[in-house]
Amino acid sequence: MPKPARLRTEEDYRGNIPVHVVWEITLACNLKCQHCGSRAGKPRNDELTTQECLDVVERLAGLGTREITLIGGEAFLRRDWLEIVKAIRSHNIYCATQTGALNFTQGKLEEAIEAGLQGIGVSIDGLPELHDRLRGVPGSYAMAIETLRRAKDAGINRSVNTQIGPETIPMLRQLMYQIIEAGAQQWQIQLTVAMGNAVDNDSVILQPYQILELMPLLAQLFDEAHSQGLTIIVGNNIGYFGPYEHKLRSIEDVSHWSGCSAGQTVIGLEADGTVKGCPSLPTVGYAGGNVRDLSLEDIWNTSKEIHFGRLRSIDDLWGFCRTCYYADVCRGGCTWTAHSLLGKPGNNPYCHYRALELEKQGLRERIRKVKEAGESPFAVGRFELILESIAEGETISVSSWEEMPKQQEDTFVLDSSELAMTDGDRYREGRVPPKLERCKACNQFIWQHEEFCPYCKTNVREANAKYDEDKKRWESLMDKIQSIISKDMSISTGK
Predict the structure, then answer these.
(1) How far apart are CA 487 and CA 495, in angstroms?
(2) Which of 108, 48, 32 is nearest to 77 (CA)?
(3) Which of 275, 255, 179, 182 is nearest to 224 (CA)?
(4) Which of 26, 224, 246, 457 is deepest in the core (most CB within 10 A)?
(5) For residue 265, which phi and psi values (nearest 5 degrees)?
(6) What is 234-265 written as a DSSP string?
């Protein structure tokens, strides 16, 4: 299978190319999801007209976009969505859609494929009872599975997107085999984020310490899935840098988390023309402008709200993330997750490395809601981060970003003068994420300057040399075995 168009190269980062665009073309939806961050249901006021959407496609093509995913709400509820698909494909841009699949009939699928749709992602959040309850419509699981089967029969690319909450973990293996049977080729897994409806129903949000249960399971399922022809893709808010990082991100060229790509190689568009660096980010504070007021090129190249990801540094991190070994490459993990939870990016408790480090000290983190979210799409509430003893359950500390010293709190506020660009420097070189080296004795990622692995204390050069020797020896042995098998087959067949 060829590599996805969205995979990013160093040249994409240097040129700040919006490789992958996730475009909410309408907020209309026929589901009632308990965890919907955008509170989808009714269309937005003043959604873009057909012609305005076609103009957006032209602009994205000019910026070098290679993949566009159409989402909602529910994208196919927009009457002109097939015209948008056709326009995308006319520029040879890969076009896919993410759907809840309720009433996505055979006829609708055939029309979409005829228009040029190349891939479909179906949202399935658990086995039938849980999925239907989370999605708010009885029978929605059956329709999702049926849509997956139809897509398989049609021969287009197929993926499943699953949001992980506390109830999902025990059923992941069984769910995996059901979506394999239905025809899934890829399975993207991400954590439910504290935004919109999920804040109202905060029991659907995983506790940070539960990442210790989730990550080993995902590593096991990864191997099982691979043997069945299914590729597991961990979302941008799952990780980071634990002992399974090299496996779970192995489909990427870098093979480890390399920081939030919002506003660097990713664009998010809202149905009314609002542009963000990532489709999941809150509108307030992250909207870089509207295509009705500014050209998409100007928003992408000059907006300070878009540029935060390009300029973020260790100075913008706080809490555990500020002093983390991986701070300069990770830069606080997923911006969406951290900001939605704590009101400010740069400190992300949903980190496997972090949970393991705290566990060594007999500690763990959990969250507690202290403020409800507003009624608008992408509204966030507020949660406290509680550090506690695992054995005694005793609270060690309760933190939120408001309690930080003033000088540290202000580090995230970017001076607009830093971001002002003239025509001469508007295309200045972007930030290429650092690359780490893998210690081949323990599989942990380490900085390239390390002589001894900080985890297993092994001499890195010697460990890597031994690994390479063992690999060559194993490959030679496998070649000999294959030669013997081939010879025996030739003798038995008389050839």
Answers:
(1) 9
(2) 108
(3) 179
(4) 26
(5) -130, 10
(6) E-TTS-BSSTTHHHHTTTSSS-S-----BTTT
Does the pLDDT value for residue 89 go beyond 70?
yes
What b/e readout covers 184-197, taking b as 16+ CB neighbours within 10 angstroms? bbbbbbbbbbbbbb
Beta strand 67-71 pairing with 20-24: parallel
Closest CA to 461 of 440, 475, 447: 440
Question: How far apart, in Å, are the Cα atoms of 163 and each of 126, 192, 299?
Answer: 8, 5, 31
Bridge pairing between strands 287-290 and 274-276: antiparallel
Distance CA 171, CA 178 (A): 11
Asked whether 243 and 249 are in contact (CB, 8 A), the reply is no
Give the whole-angstrom CA distance, residue 92 versus residue 67.
9
- Tally of CA atoms within 13 A in the half-sphere of 233 that contains its CB: 17
Query: Which pLDDT belongs to residue 6?
Result: 72
pLDDT given at position 443 = 87
- The number of beta carbons lying within 10 Å of the beta carbon of residue 138 is 11
How far is residue 278's CA from residue 286's CA, in Å, rounded to a whole number? 9
Mean pLDDT of all residues in 291-295: 95
Mean pLDDT lowest among 226-240, 376-390, 404-418: 404-418
Q: Residue 278, Cα to own-chain centre: how many angstroms?
A: 10
Residue 119, classed as helix, strand or coil, is: strand
CB count in 10 Å sphere of residue 332: 28
Half-sphere exposure in the Cβ direction for 126 (13 Å, CA):
21
Rounded to 5°, angle at Cα 33 from 43 and 134: 165
CA distances (Å), origin 135, targets 57, 131, 149: 31, 6, 20
In which band, very low, low, confident or very high, does the pLDDT at 434 lie, cut at 50, 70 and 90?
Answer: confident
Side chain identity at residue 269, one-letter code: L
Which residues face 399 on adjacent strands? 385
Spatial distance between the Cα atoms of 165 and 162, rounded to a whole number of angstroms: 10
Give the mean model confidence (pLDDT) for residues 5-33.
90
- Vertex 85: Cα angle to 81 and 86 (nearest 5): 115
For residue 481 the two structure tokens come to: 């075995």
Alpha-carbon distance 26 to 18, whole Å? 21
E strand map for 84-185: 94-99, 119-123, 157-164
> Could you give the CA distance from residue 102 to residue 222 in angstroms, rounded to a whole number?
28
Residue type, 115: A
Other beta carbons within 10 angstroms of residue 375's beta carbon come to 9
Contact predicate 377/40, CB 8 Å: yes
What is the predicted pLDDT for the residue at 495? 57
Greater model confidence, 213 or 482:
213
